[in-house]
Design goal:
It is a single chain. The chain is α+β, with helices and mostly antiparallel strands. It has one domain: Glutamine Phosphoribosylpyrophosphate, subunit 1, domain 1, CATH 3.60.20. It contains 19 helices and 19 strands. The strands form four sheets. The chain has a seven-stranded antiparallel β-sheet with strand order 1-18-17-13-12-7-6. Helix 6 packs antiparallel against helix 10 and helix 13 packs antiparallel against helix 14.
Length: 603
């Protein structure tokens, strides 16, 4: 069922929503506004977290990164060129979240042939990796006390083979037009001349100040006596500027063979990692078939395994379509949140039981999506009462699998949305896992600790878990750990109408689902959909977490239905662009999540 026209819809005000979150209101640029002159580039940056553009748009979680992508679009680049430039600039300006030492996923729509391509450049496990190397102690978060041992001493074994350099190169090889040397320049200039640390980065640096003080790059940002990076006080990273320009001149091979590759290996070994030169040489980007589903009159294209994010979103929507079908009447907020929370319980249990790297594990997607199974899960729902998560557990009878495993949380990551003037679309999620990754830098960038996204092997010294460990997502040579990243493009017919994705561990998929559902089903303005207060429910623990900005009356109603609730803090960060076609014209409604201070850019 297609939603009615936007003019026919009641809606809450964006001003109220943002006031609840403590953010400024959005100021949209009319779609009919004339094109912005080529200079200065800063004129392409929105003054607020949401804006409309007539020609092209970039939404990321740092204003200077969005500008980097917009600069490349203004120079004639494609959405692929701009996504790569934005990724690289995020590695400079938002280094706790992503960078050349990490990896991710890219979903790309090419307007000329209506094709959609999914590139997997997620980090992989070294050949020496075993499940027992990643004990619960090694997988713990970095210490926050500046006087303790460096975080990397315990996270070294979780350093995976970086995939971002190869991923960028492959994205540009297939869909770029202006060349890698031009693409890296905005980020290299930002590293050389200085970037502006956000409040978000400053806050993370205070939590992880111990790791920063034990790393040469971190020491330049957090000198003795400082309790962290200062927000809005410009920082430089000349080493990263040199690395970026070398990348532009020589390609991704410098990260996988030669002097820089040797430096990466030494840095990993110095903190207990098992990464080798052979592991770097062997790394390849994988192309996978995107996951698709038709829900609410739209085609949703998203991430396949080894991400469980796309499955969880589509499985949730299959239930939501039955429970909250949409239409002219706007549903009560408590009804929506109750249904969303219930819709995630079963898919999260499926994720923990059946998902792994598809190059090593057969993920039974057809059986998981079987209509009879969806109907059986839908029948468990009680509109008036919360059900225990295990009530939604439907093990596949033909599959010999144990109980679902605990799902690693994760906290890092960045997401980028791009639409170019030709209608090409990029949705890219990139990460180094927890903030500042393994806490060790090389040539100006931080190495990831992505392998702690594997489930841990049982340990006689660790406390019993209520969810026993599944072997499908345990570490092994060459494997890529299961992810929750959910880069998504939503289509009406052959036309993309929404590009969206997020960052923030297991909260990614619940946040992306909520924002996308509001934008598509309720036709909520995209800035409001991204900023709207959110909830999270991941099956275990059996608790519904709600952002403090959620209306007290709504939370009270959820409790009355039997939900155990707590406060959701540090939730996911969502970026989105809606593509609106009317009267032969196209305009782009772009939003960067105000929770992290991002702003979109475009023309």
């Amino acid at each position: 069922m297609n939603p009615p026209p936007r003019s026919a819809r009641p809606r809450t005000t964006l001003t109220l929503c943002l006031a609840l979150l403590g953010c400024t209101s959005a100021r949209a640029v009319p779609a009919s506004a004339p094109a912005v002159a080529p200079a200065p580039a800063s004129s392409m940056l929105s003054a607020d977290h949401a804006a409309s553009f007539a020609h092209f748009a970039v939404a990321s979680d740092h204003p200077q990164a969005s500008l980097a992508g917009a600069e490349i679009l203004a120079a004639g680049g494609t959405a692929a060129d701009a996504a790569a430039a934005t990724m690289l600039a995020l590695g400079v300006a938002s280094p706790a979240s992503s960078g050349l030492g990490g990896g991710g996923f890219a979903l790309y729509y090419r307007a000329s042939d209506h094709s959609v391509t999914f590139l997997d450049f997620r980090e992989s496990a070294p050949a020496a990796m075993t499940a027992t190397l990643l004990t619960p102690l090694q997988m713990g978060p970095p210490p926050r006390d500046g006087g303790v041992a460096p975080a990397a001493r315990s996270t070294g074994p979780s350093i995976g083979v970086p995939g971002e350099p190869r991923g960028i190169e492959e994205l540009l090889r297939r869909f770029g037009t202006i060349g890698l040397a031009r693409v890296v320049e905005p980020a290299a200039r930002l590293a050389d001349e200085g970037f502006t640390p956000s409040e978000h980065l400053a806050g993370l640096s205070q939590r992880f100040v111990g790791a920063l003080r034990h790393d040469p790059l971190g020491q330049t940002w957090v000198p003795d006596g400082a309790d962290g990076i200062r927000a809005n006080a410009p920082l430089r990273n000349p080493a990263l500027a040199r690395t970026l320009r070398a990348f532009g001149a020589n390609g991704a091979q410098i990260f996988y063979e030669g002097a820089l590759a040797e430096e990466i290996v030494r840095a990993a070994a110095g903190v207990g990692g098992v990464l080798t030169a052979a592991d770097l040489r062997a790394y390849r980007v994988a192309q996978r078939a995107p996951l698709e589903g038709n829900r609410y009159g739209h085609r949703w294209v998203t991430a396949p395994p080894e991400s469980a994010g796309g499955y969880t979103m589509l499985a949730s929507l299959a239930l939501m379509e039955r429970w909250v079908p949409g239409g002219n009447a706007r549903p009560a907020e408590a009804d929506v949140l109750h249904a969303l929370a219930e819709s995630w319980r079963g898919p999260f249990l499926d994720r923990a039981r059946y998902f792994g790297d598809p190059d090593f594990v057969s993920v039974p997607l057809d059986a998981l999506f079987a209509p009879a199974r969806v109907a059986a899960r839908a029948a468990v729902f009680d509109a008036a009462h919360a059900r225990p998560s295990m009530a939604y557990d439907l093990p596949l009878p033909e599959r010999a699998a144990g109980a679902p495993a605990a799902v690693p949380l994760g906290t890092g990551t960045s997401h980028i949305c791009v639409v170019d003037a030709a209608g090409n679309v990029a949705s890219v999620t990139t990460t180094i896992n927890i903030p500042f990754g393994a806490g060790v830098s090389v040539a100006g960038f931080w190495l990831n600790d992505e392998l702690d996204d594997f489930t841990s092997a049982p340990s006689p010294n660790s406390p019993a878990s209520p969810l026993p460990t599944s072997a499908l997502n345990q570490a092994a040579p060459g494997r890529r750990p299961v992810s929750t990243m959910t880069p998504t493009i939503v289509f009406a017919g052959n036309d993309p109408v929404l590009v969206i994705g997020g960052s923030g561990g297991t909260r990614i998929v619940t946040s992306v689902t909520q924002a996308a559902w509001r934008a598509v089903v309720l036709d909520t303005p995209v800035g409001e959909a991204v900023a709207f207060p959110r909830i999270h429910q991941a099956a275990a623990p059996d608790v519904l977490s709600a952002e403090p900005a959620t209306a007290e009356a709504v939370v009270a109603e959820l409790r009355a239905r039997g939900h155990q609730t707590d406060a959701l803090r540090g939730g996911a960060i969502v970026q989105a662009i809606r593509i609106v076609r009317a009267g032969g014209a196209v305009h782009l409604e772009a939003a960067s999540d105000p929770r992290k201070g991002g702003r979109p850019a475009g023309r």
